[in-house]
Amino acid sequence: MQTRAKAMGHQIHPMLVAFPLGLLGTGVIFDIVFLITGRTGFEIAAAYTIGAGVIGGLLAALFGAIDAASIPSRTRAKRIGLLHGLGNVAALALFAISWVLREQATAWHASTLALILSFVGIVVLAGTAWLGGELVERLGIGVAPDADVNSPSSLSSQRRGLASH
């Protein structure tokens, strides 16, 4: 099935998700480097990249919602798309709260809670990124006109209509 949200023949949502994933992941890396080195520049860099990542995530979510509306109801793809979207909303909320906590602190200091929220957020994003890959790579959502919206999980022993031996 093809998506309606395209630019120059390509899906917009996958083009946009690279930015929030990269920015939020980089923010977590900066947090880790700060914890190791104690250099406040990394703490500030983490706050800025997390803020930009949340904004980018909201934009990507808009186009993801447009794509999700095109998925047929009562299919495995619709269920995975819902988990993918809700998980991303939860991850963005975790990062947004982490950012607000940093913004309210002196010199963008990351409290223990802000760090925990970011670390949990990146784990959630890893899971939702896998689900997004499952939608595209396994189910063909947005890329294959003949998408198999009920294809089994890539973790199962079945492969696109073929049972394993």
TrEMBL record:
Transmembrane segments annotated in the record for this chain: 12-36, 48-69, 81-101, 107-131
Record keywords: Membrane, Transmembrane, Transmembrane helix
Family matches, as InterPro entries: DUF2231_TM
The organism's place on the tree of life at top rank: Bacteria
Domain (DUF2231): residue spans on this chain: 9-144
Record bears the keyword Transmembrane helix: yes
Keyword Transmembrane appears in the UniProt entry: yes
Full protein name: DUF2231 domain-containing protein
Organism expressing this protein natively: Rugosimonospora acidiphila
